[in-house]
Design brief:
The protein is an alpha/beta fold. Helices cover 39% and strands 10% of the residues. It has an 8-stranded parallel β-sheet.
Length: 366
């Protein structure tokens, strides 16, 4: 928007010379990639069992993957997963994309840990401890070191949801620091800052917040609508995200719940209003956005894997999380993004901006 004084400024008396020659845009990190490679830079893959399949290694060598998410079924121990990650990194080194893979897991602490070791305490235990800020920072350091020790570089944590009722969806697994946003914000900030100092990226989740969800309201299994007021969404649920963004959290995961106060028609991760206006615009996040699981039951009305991937990208999501432990899911999402871009359904400038944000994140990780 033009500045308020623009229309009232006096006309310039300076003699105008010829307009400057248009400068060529600097080459982006995406320059030289094929359309499929470009689409692949937005896809996080998963696979079943303890051994990555040959198809995934081929995709990585071809420069058509952003990264891989690991679950408990992929991990038999630290030596085994370290060897797997070394194999994936060797495949990436053979690719035309010269930035590291994003290698991620949910190492929240307490009950939600994919690897043995820190952080042992849950967010709720941290929130109730004698020195919660120090405990949150120690958990962030511990999570970062645990992941880095096996070669991972992204943690899908911390949870910044502010639970509304004891025992509800997010509180029943002790995944929330507190029912008070003024407590959640500094603890999330401490965790993020400490973890990112270890070289492992943090992910604030699940924007704009699942703290209002009742015990059985799980977006993994079905649609969830959270009908809190706009004042509650912004004053309570989003409050910790503003703090996280202010200290430079690398990623934000957007939830699959629907928030009528923001957009009554679409889940948050498919909503340009939530992603573009609320997270990017109002809160000012300039880092990488990542979806929750693309196979989630909450998206049952939104078509195939490919249709969901395109809808998420259209909404402004950068990374598409294909976490069904099936390599073909990521391939289907990639193909759909290729076709949507070729057909003009996805804006080329926005597509390049997304891949450049992801490349910039990858470039500063190991």
């Amino acid at each position: 928007m033009a500045s308020p004084s623009a229309s009232t400024a006096p006309p310039s008396t300076k003699v105008q010379g010829p307009p400057p020659a248009p400068s060529l845009p600097a080459p982006t990190r995406s320059a030289g990639l094929t359309r499929r490679q470009l689409a692949g830079q937005r896809i996080i893959y998963s696979y079943p069992g303890l051994t990555p399949p040959a198809s995934l290694l081929r995709i990585i060598r071809a420069g058509e993957a952003a990264g891989v998410i690991f679950f408990g079924e992929n991990i038999a121990g630290t030596a085994q997963i370290s060897n797997v990650i070394a194999q994936l990194r060797r495949a990436q080194a053979q690719s035309p994309v010269h930035v590291p893979l994003l290698l991620m897991a949910d190492q929240e602490g307490g009950l939600i840990r994919r690897l043995p070791g820190a952080p042992a305490r849950s967010e709720k235990q941290i929130g109730q401890s004698a020195d919660p800020v120090a405990a949150a920072a120690a958990a962030g350091t511990g999570a970062g070191r645990t992941l880095a020790a096996v070669g991972m570089n992204v943690n899908l944590a911390p949870v910044l949801d502010v639970y509304s009722i004891a025992g509800n969806f997010i509180d029943q697994y002790q995944r929330s620091y507190s029912a008070n946003p003024g407590t959640v914000a500094p603890l999330g900030r401490a965790f993020i800052a400490a973890q990112q100092r270890t070289g492992v990226a943090a992910t604030a989740k699940h924007f704009p917040g699942l703290g209002w969800a009742a015990t059985a309201q799980n977006t993994d299994t079905g649609p969830v609508t959270l009908s809190q007021s706009l004042a509650r969404v912004r004053g309570t649920d989003e409050f910790p995200y503003s703090a996280a963004v202010a200290i430079g959290v690398d990623l934000v995961m957007v939830s699959w719940a629907t928030y009528p106060a923001l957009d009554p028609n679409r889940p948050a991760g498919l909503s340009p209003t939530v992603v573009g206006q609320e997270l990017r615009g109002r809160i000012g996040f300039t880092g990488v956005t990542i979806t929750d699981a693309l196979e989630a039951g909450a998206l049952s009305r939104y078509g195939s894997t490919g249709q969901r991937a395109v809808a998420a990208a259209t909404a402004g999501m950068d990374l598409i999380l294909c976490s069904a432990r099936d390599v073909s899911q990521g391939e289907a999402a990639t193909t759909a993004l290729v076709n949507a871009q070729a057909g003009g359904q996805l804006d080329a400038t926005g597509f390049t901006a997304a891949t450049d944000r992801i490349a910039a994140l990858r470039a500063h990780l190991h």
